[in-house]
Amino acid sequence: MRLDGLVGPDGSTPRELRASFWKRGAGRAALRTALDWNPQRLVIAHGLLPQENGREALAHGLRWLA
pTM to 2 decimals? Predict the structure, then answer.
C-alpha cells in the first residue's frame, strides 16, 4: 500500500483505479458536487478518519481528479 501511495498523510486513490477514469469530466463534476456539500467528517475505507475539515480532506485525496 505504501508503494502505491495509498497510506500516510498524502494517501490517494490506487493507480489502477485512477487509470480507469476515461471520462474525467464526469468525475470532476461529481467531485465539485461532493465538495459543494461541504462535508465536515468523512468515513473512508482505510487510513486516518478526518474528524474535521472533511471538504479539504476530500479535495486532497482526490486531487488527481481535479
Answer: 0.77
